[in-house]
Amino acid sequence: MNVQMSWGVSKRIATIYENKATLALRVSGILHKGWVYISLDEGRDCYIITLLSSGKKKVISVHDEVYCEELGSVIDNLVEHKKEWTDKQYKSLALADSEQKMR
Fold this sequence. Notes:
By secondary structure, the chain is of the alpha+beta class.
């Protein structure tokens, strides 16, 4: 739950995107500020994660075949925290990002 809170989710919308049931999240993370679409691919029993710009007009990236047990970590690595960052690096970046948002 703490990981999801770090993404700065301000909106959650259930929708249909490319003919798939989708949860749309507006996020404000360190790495991505905009929309994350989590679409269920029922036929393959996995998810498709799509990052979109804040205006939903530009697709930033698409991540296919994300399985349930990977969902949180994949989104976190796209929105908030790169795997290669140390805890010290992440804390420093998170603090700077929070300070900027407070202005």
